[in-house]
Task: inverse folding
C-alpha cells in the first residue's frame, strides 16, 4: 500500500507544506525511519530529523520546513499514531464472534457484540457487557460482571465474583482476584484466613501483563476509575487505589493500604500494609513507604523521605568515608578518646 | 437468603447478646457494612463499630454491648469467615468431574474425586492424588506427582518431574519447574548449563499468583512444608526453603540459597545466591541479603543490617547534610585544611 | 536402567580411574547423592566428596583418586549433565506433531518439523520456523515470525507482529509484545498513546518464566542476540538491549533505555527510562540506575554509584550514629552552638 503525503494529511486533517504528491512507503519513528518513510518530529529532535533519511514528517507548527514535505498538525503524536494505525495496524477481532472451542457456561450472559477467542472460559452466572473482547484462553470465573468494551488479552484470569468497569483493558497473564495473603500463626503453623471478598476495577483502568490484584478478605479490593497499572505490579488484599493513579512496573502495595487520586508511583516502589498515600503524591523509583505520605508531596528512597531532603542526603552520602576520616583527625587534634 | 442473628450464632456456635430474631441481609467488614448487615468487630475498632450502620456484629468477649445484637465467640475472625462463606461463598467444583475438553494423557493416573477443568493438560505418567482440583487451563507436565487435595488454579504451569505435597495450593499463572538461570561464559557467549533437576513442594504450601519456582540443575529445588509464598515471588534453582516460611510479594531468592524454618521475609526482599538465612529470621521489606543471616535475628536494609543498628542509621542519615556543614565549620575553626 | 562406570565414561569420552565395572544406579549432585550413585566433583568440594556416599564421580584432572572410581574429563559439568540427561532426561516432544486441539490459522505457515501442543493458538499470517516447539496453550498472534528451533513453553503469549530469532527459548507464562505503558495527561485523565510497534528478539535469547517485554510505541523493542533474561523481568517499550546481556530475576528496565553488549544486571535492578548502560557494565543486585553508566564499569546501590565508592560508603554508614554523637561532643568541646 503506497499513499501520498497529501492522502496522509487528509487522514489526520493536517496541513501539507511542500510536495504533497510524494509517495510514502511506511511510517517509522525517527530512529528507525528509512528513505521513503514518513516520520514524527518535534522541536526537541531537530538535529535527528536533519540526519534522518525519511522522506517526510508529521510535525508541530514550531518545526521549520527544511526542504522535505511536512504535515503540520496541532497534535503530531496522535496524528502519527493514526497514520501508523492506518498503514499497518491490524483490524480488531470481528465483533460478536464466539469461537466454537470457547467454554461459555449456559447461565453466562454475553451482551451484543461480545467476542470470545479460542479456549476462553466464562463461568456460571457471569455477565459480559456489549462489545467486550475476551482473547484466546482468558478465564473468567463465576458471578463476575464485565462492563462494555472490556478487553481481556490472552490468558488473563479473573477469579469468581470480580467486577470490571467499562473499557477496562487487562493484558496477558494478569490475574484478578486471587486469594489475599492472609494467615494467622497458630500451633506452629500459618493457618489460612479465608479470602471471601472480591475485586472491583472501575471504568477506564488498564492493567499490565502479569500483574496481580488480590481479592479482599471479606469485602472489595478496589482500583479507582482511570488508574493505569503497568506490568508485574502486585496489589494486595483490601487495598483501595484512588482514581487516575499511575503505578509503574513492579510496584507492590501491601494489604489494606489506600491511595488518593492522581498518585504516581515510579517503578519498583513498595508500600507497606495499612498505609495511606495522599492525593497527587509522586513517589520516585524504588521508594519504600512505611509511613503515611501527606497529599501533594514528592517522596524518594527507603524509608521514603521528602524528595528535597533525600536528594541532599544522597549527595552527602558519597562523602561519608572522607567525613569519617575528618572526624578521626579532629578527635585526634582535640585529644578526644576513640570510643571502643 | 435472609437469616436471623440466632441462626448465624448457631452456625458458628456463638452466644447471642440482644435481639436474636433480628433478620440479617449480608455480612460485610466494618468499612463496607450497610444497614441490615452483620459485621466483624474487635476491641481495636470500637469507634468504627460505634459509627458503623451495621445491624449486628460478631465480636470477642471483650467488646461491650452497645444496644445492637452481638454474637460472642472466642475466635471472631474465623466465625465471621464461616458466616460469609455460608451467606455468599461459592460451592467448590464438583468432585470427580473431568471436563471433556481436558487433555489427560492415557498413562496419567487420577485418584478418586479428582476434578479437571476445561483445557487443562496432564502429562504422561503423572499421578494426581485424591480430591485434587486442576482448574481451567492448568498444565502439568510428564512424570509429576501431585498429592491429595492439591489445588491448581487456572493456567498454573508445572513442568515435568515436579512433586507437590498434599493440600498444596497454587494460584493462577504461577510456574513451577521452569529452567534455572544457569549459564557459563565461553567463547564470547553464555552457554546454557542444562537444568535437569526438579521442584519438590512439600505439604500445605501455598504459592501466590504469578510466582515462579525454578527446577534444580541436577537435583531438587525444595519448598518446606507449611511455607506460604505470596504473588510474583521468584525462587531460583537449587534453593532450599525451610518449613513454615512466609515470603511476601515480589521477594526474590537467588540460586542455591537456603532458609531455616519459620523465616519471614517482607515484600520485595532479595537474597543473593549461596546465602543462608537462619531459623526464625525476620527480614523487613526490601531487605537485600548479601551475607549469611544468623538465626533468630531481624535484619533491614540493603545491604542487610541488624534491625536496631539499621533503624539508628536511618534516623541519623537525615542529618547527613547538617553533619557535613558542621564538619566544615569545625575544620575551619581548627584551621584544618580542606582535602582536595 | 543400570549401567557401569565404563559405559558412562564412554558416553562422555572420559578416562576411567579405578573399577570401571562398578554398576551405577543414578546420578545426583554432591549434596543429594546416595550409595550407588555417580556424582560431580571439583577441587573446591573435595571435603564434601570425601564425606559423600556416592560410589563414583565425574571429576576434572585436578581431583585426586581416593579409592572410588573417577571419570576424568576436561569439562566435568557438561559431562555430568550428559550423563544425567541420558539416565533420566525426558525425550523432546516428537517433531512435527500438531495436536488436533491446537488452533492454527489457515494462513499460518508451519515449517517442517514444527510441533504444536494442545490448546495452542497460532494467528493469521504467522510463520513458524523448522523444528520449533509450541507447548500446550502457547498463544502466538497475527503476523509473527518465529525462527527455527524456537521453543515456547506452556502458556507463553506473543502478541501480533513480533519476531523471535532462531533458537529463542521462552519459558512459561512470559508475555512478549503487550502494550507499552504510554499515556499523556489531558483533561484530568491519562489518555493512552497507541502502542503500534513490535518486539524483535534476536537469535539465541532465552526469556524466563513470567517475564514481560512490551512492544515499542511505533517501532521495535529489541533484545540483542545471545542475551539471557531470567524470571519476572520487565522490559519496557522501545528499549534496546544489546547482545549477550545477562539480566537476572525481577530486573526492570523502563521505556526507551538502551544497553550495550555483555552487560550484567543482578537481581531486582531497575533502570529509569531513557538511560544508557554501556558495554560490559556490571550492576549489583537491587541497583537503581538514574544516570547513564559508562562502559566497562561496576555500579552498586540506589542511586547507582561506582562499586568501590559505594562499598566504602556502605561500611562507613554503619558508623553514622557514633559519628553524630562525636560531632555533638566536638561541638560542645569547641563551644559551637547547636543549630535549631
Result:
Amino acid at each position: 500500500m503506497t499513499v501520498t503525503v497529501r492522502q496522509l494529511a487528509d487522514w489526520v486533517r493536517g496541513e501539507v507544506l511542500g510536495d504533497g504528491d510524494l509517495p510514502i512507503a511506511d511510517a517509522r519513528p525517527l530512529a528507525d525511519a528509512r528513505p521513503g518513510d514518513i516520520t514524527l518530529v518535534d522541536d526537541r529532535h531537530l538535529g535527528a530529523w536533519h540526519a534522518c533519511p525519511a522522506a517526510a514528517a508529521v510535525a508541530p507548527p514550531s518545526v521549520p520546513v527544511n526542504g522535505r514535505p511536512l504535515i503540520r498538525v496541532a497534535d503530531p503524536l496522535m496524528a502519527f499514531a493514526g497514520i501508523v494505525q492506518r498503514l499497518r495496524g491490524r483490524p480488531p477481532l470481528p465483533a460478536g464472534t464466539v469461537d466454537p472451542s470457547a467454554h461459555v457456561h449456559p447461565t453466562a450472559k454475553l451482551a451484543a457484540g461480545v467476542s470470545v477467542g479460542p479456549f476462553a472460559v466464562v463461568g456460571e452466572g457471569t455477565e459480559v457487557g456489549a462489545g467486550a473482547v475476551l482473547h484466546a484462553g482468558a478465564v473468567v470465573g463465576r458471578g463476575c460482571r464485565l462492563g462494555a468494551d472490556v478487553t481481556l488479552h490472552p490468558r488473563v484470569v479473573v477469579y469468581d465474583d470480580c467486577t470490571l468497569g467499562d473499557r477496562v483493558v487487562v493484558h496477558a497473564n494478569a490475574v484478578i482476584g486471587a486469594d489475599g495473603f492472609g494467615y494467622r500463626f497458630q500451633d506452629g503453623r500459618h493457618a489460612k484466613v479465608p479470602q471471601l471478598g472480591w475485586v472491583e476495577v472501575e471504568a477506564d483502568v488498564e492493567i499490565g501483563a502479569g500483574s496481580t490484584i488480590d481479592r479482599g478478605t471479606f469485602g472489595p479490593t478496589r482500583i479507582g476509575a482511570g488508574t493505569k497499572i503497568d506490568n508485574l505490579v502486585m496489589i494486595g488484599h483490601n487495598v483501595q487505589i484512588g482514581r487516575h493513579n499511575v503505578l509503574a512496573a513492579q510496584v507492590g502495595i501491601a494489604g489494606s493500604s489506600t491511595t488518593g487520586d492522581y498518585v504516581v508511583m515510579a517503578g519498583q516502589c513498595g508500600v507497606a500494609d495499612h498505609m495511606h498515600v495522599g492525593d497527587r503524591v509522586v513517589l520516585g523509583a524504588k521508594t519504600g513507604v512505611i509511613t503515611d505520605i501527606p497529599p501533594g508531596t514528592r517522596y524518594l528512597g527507603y524509608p521514603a523521605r521528602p524528595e528535597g531532603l533525600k536528594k541532599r542526603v544522597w549527595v552527602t552520602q558519597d562523602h561519608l568515608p572522607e567525613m569519617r576520616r575528618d572526624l578521626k583527625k579532629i578527635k585526634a587534634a582535640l585529644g578526644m578518646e576513640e570510643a571502643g
Q: What stands out?
A: The mean pLDDT of chain B is 95. The first strand of chain B starts at residue 3 and ends at 4.
